[in-house]
Amino acid sequence: MTGAEQTKTRPGTNGQDSSMLSAPSPTGPVDPPSTAARSGRRHVLDMDDFSREEILGVFQNADAMTEVLNRDIKKVPTLRGKTVVTLFYEASTRTRVSFEQAGKVLSADVINVSASSSSANKGESLYNTALTLQAMNADIIVIRHGHSGAPHFLARHLDSCVINAGDGTHAHPTQALLDLYTIHNHLGDIDGIKVAIVGDALYSRVARSNLWGLTTMGAQVTLCAPPTLMPVDFLDGRRSEEGHPFASVRVESNVERAIEDADVVMVLRLQLERQHAGHLPTLREYSRMYGINERRLVLAKPGALVMHPGPMNEGVEIDPEVAHGARSVIEEQVSNGVAIRMALLYGMATPARQNAATRGG
Ligand code: NCD
């Protein structure tokens, strides 16, 4: 299949049986989905503990969820009686709304807590806030926090399941899964495809989780950033040490060379709110040297996909014509995010208390 033909493939139509997740009955409970597999996973903290098989399993469940999302009545009773709490200590539009929609389509009770309107504002610790939510029987806590490691901390101390919705500069596993799913829907097997990740790799949790996910799936990844925005592991000789997980990743500071012949160009936001001073002379210079524009995109494969996790600094890391152009799958990433988060919530939906005895997974 050519890149252009592959691009036409509709998301969620990979041939799997999506007849599960039967329509809700107004009168009584409906059988749980029969073809989607429960993952048995308790927490989603990063991509480093996802195998290729598990990722493919998430895709398969996401296909079934996409089918539900395409119905007139987008509601199934699968998580009736479960409580999902989103606990966001950082700004978010798409990630929080997407988790909320995912929970609601599956009939969970979704409670949104934002730090600015919670007792965190009065100095309550993360631990005490989380204990309070657990005491209110939260089955799954979805947390976004400015400190790397905050979700791991909750996972260690709570009985509730924990999903990392972005922690500091560390990880954003659900974004990586939705990115992988979007690529898979267009290009099929990710093994061997060329992905150029371009931008602020140093501060991007999206880049870190995608590096794990893409390399697990066998993609040939090129990481491109100015040297001042490249994580240190990719600058010194560390990756040549035996067993380094990212030994296969190519590092490139020249954007033209990075995107040449790429199947996918994944653009990262300049994380200006996180950056310390001195990384870039000016935004204008960054845009001139690294911005993805039509002229540069010609170097990628015909039909190459353009991705961005959002929110975008249009005119800085990506030109508006590219962001909204024919090759952009940026809006599809957002839609796929709901299906992927439904798939994850579903996979983790076995009662938290029941799992507590086998904690550690
Ligand atoms: C990302 C995040 O918050 O890490 N956005 C998102 O979740 N869609 C990426 C970013 O902010 O650049």
Description:
The structure is a single chain. By secondary structure, the protein is α/β, with parallel strands linked by helices. The protein folds into two domains: 39-171 and 335-354, Aspartate/ornithine carbamoyltransferase (Rossmann fold, 3-Layer(aba) Sandwich); 173-329, 3-Layer(aba) Sandwich (Rossmann fold). Helix content is 34%, strand content 13%. The chain has a five-stranded parallel beta sheet with strand order 1-5-4-2-3, sandwiched between helices. Strands 8-7-6-9-10 form a five-stranded parallel beta sheet. The longest helix is centred in the N-terminal third of the chain and has 18 residues, at 52-69.
- CATH overall fold name of the largest domain: Rossmann fold
**Bound small-molecule species:** N-carbamoyl-L-aspartate
Mean pLDDT: 87
Unreliably modeled segments: 1-20, 22-32, 350-361
Helices, by number, come to 13
Reading the helices and strands in chain order gives HEHEHEHEHEHEHEEHEHHEHHH
Q: Let me know the largest β-sheet.
A: 5 strands, parallel
